[in-house]
Design a protein that fits this description.
Helix content is 44%, strand content 16%. By secondary structure, the chain is α/β, with parallel strands linked by helices. It has a domain at 2-190 and 223-254 and 291-313: NAD(P)-binding Rossmann-like Domain (Rossmann fold, 3-Layer(aba) Sandwich), CATH 3.40.50. The chain has a 7-stranded parallel β-sheet, with helices on both faces. The chain has a 3-stranded mixed β-sheet with strand order 7-9-11. The chain has a two-stranded parallel sheet with strand order 8-12. The protein is globular. It binds nicotinamide-adenine-dinucleotide and 2'deoxy-thymidine-5'-diphospho-alpha-D-glucose. Nicotinamide-adenine-dinucleotide (NAD) binds next to helix 1, helix 4, strand 5 and strand 7. Its EC number is 4.2.1.46.
Amino acid sequence: MILVTGGAGFIGANFVLDWLEGSDEPVLNVDKLTYAGNLGTLKSLKDDARHVFARADICDRAAMDELFAKHKPRAVVHFAAESHVDRSIHGPADFVQTNVVGTFTLLEAARTYWNALPEAEKQAFRFLHVSTDEVFGSLSATDPQFSETTPCAPNSPYSATKAGSDHLVRAYHHTYGLPVLTTNCSNNYGPYQFPEKLIPLMIANALAGKPLPVYGDGQNVRDWLYVGDHCAAIREVLAKGKLGETYNVGGWNEKKNLEVVHTLCDLLDQKKPKASGSYRDQIAYVTDRPGHDRRYAIDARKLERELGWKPAETFETGLAKTVQWYLDNQAWADEVASGEYRKWVETNYGQRA
Ligand code: NAD
Ligand code: DAU
């Protein structure tokens, strides 16, 4: 079986669902179920023996040791993290704990387990660490895209802790020979994303008749990657990636935030028109995010050249699917927008002009 951490979160849950759609190899899903973890996303696997769920914190060494010993995974795919930049600005401590201490603890448990494996299983073992393009910092409008050799220059507490975890993973390969792989991907979007991130937040607010809060001038650029394409890239890297290497994963879709919001409004105008006016009328410019990175862009040619992966979705097809999914699954979105979510909305948006 494979051990997936953070498999109740957005990308992790999409990965678990995709994995079990294409394979009968079981998944041990290890997740602490923070505000971002939601077992409702995995309810289609309720009676499926191939999905084993363990509620545990990756910072808990004894729990990690026990899970490795009991389930004997052939690979780890490590998604678990605190993932939202704005939350890292309001409360960085949880980010240091989970992203740095948690990854360290998981690496230690994996190393102990891996060291004791018989030689053939030791050779076959993999530890795949899922990271982000944010570790590379911010680009100007004319800079070349991030490549695998771009130096690390993280700017937020979130990206600094992810960079710390990337360095630990790299060091465990160079020092101990642990068979690791790292992926650095751009902004994911698609089904089951928590409505704190740009795209699901805008859809939820638009449908609720609330303002669409665009930070600063709305000209910051992100590269958008459909989550299903990201899951396919991870499967390729896990199967064929070269040990100790890093792979950039991107959608070749650089867009300004305002363009993204406009496209979302236009899609909603077509699919669920308002009684009068356009969803664009709800756009509200608000105070910028402190330290807001201007542009991220990914050069994903290594992954295409070496492993044959490229994204299947364009931004237009991926976004249309995503909007339709949120329209068809409003019950899921209402369920995750719990009391804790309402508190976060007040913390992040209540004080912004
Ligand atoms: P998410 O916030 O939606 O989910 C994170 C999951 O990890 C949740 O299920 C949560 O309960 C779990 N978790 C948190 N702390 C834990 C702990 N201490 N122990 C065990 N489980 C814990 O995140 P996501 O958007 O799905 O991101 C997954 C991974 O991909 C993260 O490592 C993130 O840094 C990386 N990433 C995300 C994006 C993106 O656009 N969302 C882009 C690049 C990289
Ligand atoms: O680049 C990969 C990263 O993408 C991941 O590592 C992170 O886990 C993920 O959260 C994401 O980070 P961003 O900060 O880019 O994503 P977010 O959805 O929070 O914001 C996208 C852009 O939209 C960013 O420029 C800030 C802006 N924004 C965001 C929110 C929540 C707004 O203008 N208004 C908002 O309300």
